[in-house]
């Protein structure tokens, strides 16, 4: 690996860590520090794995619980970009994958954020050209992920290492990993610029529709076929100053997952409509229905799988051994679950 990409990666992490210190109030308060008592800024991705957030917005479930407090939203392609927004105070609460969650927590020395709920499990595949029939065929091929260091990027690198392949952060090694926006990935696959991608839904099913095939369903790599793909994080200072607003958002989250369980057809229709607005291209409803089958929506953050994923990031050189003590705070979630007559979730012992 060349020195320049390594320096760029370290610069990004250093800047993120510094921003986290500001965002958590360890230095003088900036304009975004603490947030507002009458507003919540929510981040999420235009992915099926973030359907709880999408439906909560589309159906007005968050706003209903927030009452007079205003909800504003921002969408992101992948976790590292959303973390930058959280660190800078641009958003207060975010739906995000486990790898950027861990990176942010570690870089801020446990000060920047808390995981306050789960949201989804599954919904990720490695889709490749039909000519690739086994892992060995990936040697020399170019495979996309949403962003360097995001959850899918870590998963791909770890899996490739288990297959005996080397990878580097700048796209070198036995298999060439190319981080890029999911929309770019779809076009790149169609033109042959990449040979496959380890991506979440609905991008994975879109690639299959474009002629690809699933080589790896990530669920098959986890015990019980369950792993956290999306959890909910909050800036620590926002949680401390506005627990009522956090509770309102979590009430909307629980209501969204209830709707998903009770009326999946309605939930899928909401997602089709919302993704059309977010991406500028309305997805095929049948494709969404098929991809939906790969995802479990759950308020349980599946903490043990986050820890395992963090160990995978350590193994591929994207993270030093983390101290995750204090990462989770499910107190408010369990209050909401109790009020909704649902089973509470034991506090993880990380």
From TrEMBL:
Transmembrane segments: none annotated. Its main location: membrane. The keyword Transcription regulation does not apply. It holds the Pfam family NMT1_2. The keyword Signal applies. Residues 1-28 form the signal peptide. It is found in: Cell inner membrane; Periplasm. Keywords: Cell inner membrane, Cell membrane, Membrane, Signal, Transport. Belongs to the bacterial solute-binding protein SsuA/TauA family. This is Aliphatic sulfonate ABC transporter substrate-binding protein.
């Amino acid at each position: 690996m060349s020195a320049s990409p390594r320096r760029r990666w370290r610069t990004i992490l250093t800047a993120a860590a510094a921003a986290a210190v500001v965002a958590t109030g360890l230095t003088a308060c900036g304009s975004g520090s603490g947030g507002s008592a009458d507003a919540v800024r929510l981040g999420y991705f235009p992915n099926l794995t973030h359907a709880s957030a999408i439906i909560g917005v589309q159906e007005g479930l968050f706003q209903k619980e927030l009452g007079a407090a205003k909800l504003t939203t921002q969408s992101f392609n992948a976790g590292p970009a959303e973390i930058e927004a959280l660190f800078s105070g641009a958003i207060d609460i975010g739906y995000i994958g486990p790898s950027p969650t861990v990176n942010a927590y570690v870089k801020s020395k446990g000060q920047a954020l808390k995981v306050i709920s789960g949201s989804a499990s599954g919904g990720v595949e490695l889709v490749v050209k039909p000519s690739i029939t086994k892992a060995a065929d990936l040697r020399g091929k170019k495979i996309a992920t949403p962003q360097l260091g995001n959850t899918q990027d870590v998963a791909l690198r770890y899996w490739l290492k288990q297959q005996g392949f080397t990878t580097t952060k700048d796209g070198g090694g036995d298999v060439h990993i190319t981080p890029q926006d999911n929309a770019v990935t779809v076009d790149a696959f169609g033109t042959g610029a990449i040979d496959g991608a380890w991506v979440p839904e609905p991008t994975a099913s879109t690639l299959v529709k474009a002629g690809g095939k699933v080589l790896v369903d990530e669920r098959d790599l986890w015990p019980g076929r369950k792993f956290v793909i999306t959890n909910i994080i909050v800036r620590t200072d926002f949680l401390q100053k506005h627990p009522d607003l956090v509770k309102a958002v979590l009430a909307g989250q629980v209501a969204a997952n209830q709707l998903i369980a009770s009326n999946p057809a309605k939930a899928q229709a909401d997602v089709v409509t919302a993704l059309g607005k977010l991406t500028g291209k309305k997805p095929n409803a049948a494709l969404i229905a098929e991809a939906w089958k790969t995802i479990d929506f759950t308020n349980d953050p599946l903490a043990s799988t986050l820890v395992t994923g963090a160990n995978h990031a350590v193994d591929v050189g994207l993270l030093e051994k983390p101290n995750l003590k204090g990462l989770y705070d499910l107190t408010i979630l369990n209050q909401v679950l109790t009020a909704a007559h649902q089973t509470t979730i034991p506090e993880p012992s990380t």
